[in-house]
Amino acid sequence: MASIRIPAPLRAYTDGNEHVTISGRTVDEGLRDLAGQYPALEKHLFTDGKLRSFVNVFIGEEDIRFLDGVDTPVKEDDRLMIIPSIAGG
Amino acid sequence: MMIIRLTTEQLTTIEAHGESTYPNEGAGFLLGHIPDPDTLLIEVVLPVENKRETEAQYNRYELSQKDYLRAELEAAKQGIDLVGVFHSHPDHPSSPSVFDRDHALPHFAYLITSVQAGKAAITQAWRLREGRECFDEDRLVIVG
C-alpha cells in the first residue's frame, strides 16, 4: 500500500507517526483515507472540503500541482509526502 | 500556556535577522525539543530567506518547501524536532495578523519580533489554538 510522510507539526494527530499507510486510487482518496484514520487532522488538511492552499503534497519528488492535482493517481508502492507552506504576514 | 526557553544568543540571532531584513519581513525555523508538556526548549535558530516576491515582503513572508524539508531533516539528524517559526513585523506590533492565523500550523511556536524603525523592539511567542480561531500567547524565558 502507499504511504504518506506526515510533517512534524501534524504528527500530534497521527499518534506521533511519521509515516502512515493509506489507501485510495488518487491523492484525494488517499488524503481522505488519512483524515478518516485520524479525524482531528481533517481541519488542518481541508477547508470547505478542499485541500488547504498551504498543504503541499508530493509523490516522490513531484509536486502534485504539476501532475493532476488531487486527481493524480496513486500506485500501491508510491511514497507521498505532505510539506506545509510556511507563510504569514 | 507553554514556557519557551531560549538563550540570549538565540534571541539576538532572531532579532538581528529581523533588523537585517528591515523594512521587509525576515523569518526562519526553530528546532528544539519538549522536555515536559509545558516546556519547549529551543536548541537551534535557523534564519532562512524570505521567498515572497520583493514588493510583498514588507508585510508577508514565505519559506520555501526546500528549506522546510532541510529544517526537518536537520532536526532529525540532531535527534530533535522542528518546533516552530519566527518572523518579524516591520513597524507593526509583535502580535499575529489574520494572515498569520490563516497560514499557521497547530503545535508550532510562532515567535514574532516587532522591528520599529529598523530596531528590534519586542519579541513575543504565540501558539495557534486547536480550533484555529485565534492564537494564545506563550511565555518566553531567556536563559543564559
Written account of the structure:
The complex is a heterodimer of chains A (89) and B (144). Chain A is of the alpha+beta class and 89 residues long. Chain A has a single domain, classed as Ubiquitin-like (UB roll). Chain A has two helices and eight strands; from the N terminus they run ββααββββββ. A five-stranded mixed β-sheet of chain A has the order 2-1-7-5-6, covered by helices on one side. A two-stranded antiparallel sheet of chain A has the order 3-4. The termini of chain A are far apart. The mean pLDDT of chain A is 93. Chain B is α/β, with parallel strands linked by helices and 144 residues long. Chain B has one domain: Cytidine Deaminase, domain 2, CATH 3.40.140.10. Helices cover 24% and strands 45% of the residues of chain B. Chain B contains three helices and eight strands; from the N terminus they run E-H-E-E-E-H-E-H-E-E-E. A seven-stranded mixed β-barrel of chain B has the order 1-3-2-5-6-7-8. In chain B, strand 6 and strand 7 form a beta hairpin. The longest helix of chain B has 14 residues. In chain B, 42% of the residues are buried. The model of chain B has no long low-confidence stretch (mean pLDDT 95). Chains A and B meet through strand 8 of A and strand 4, helix 2, strand 5 and helix 3 of B. Strand 8 of chain A pairs antiparallel with strand 4 of chain B, so a sheet runs across the interface.
